[in-house]
Amino acid sequence: AQKVTQAQTEISVVEKEDVTLDCVYETRDTTYYLFWYKQPPSGELVFLIRRNSFDEQNEISGRYSWNFQKSTSSFNFTITASQVVDSAVYFCALSEGVSGTYKYIFGTGTRLKVLA
Amino acid sequence: DTGVSQNPRHKITKRGQNVTFRCDPISEHNRLYWYRQTLGQGPEFLTYFQNEAQLEKSRLLSDRFSAERPKGSFSTLEIQRTEQGDSAMYLCASAPGQAINQPQHFGDGTRLSIL
Question: Over 80: is that where the pLDDT of A99 sits?
Answer without folding.
Answer: no
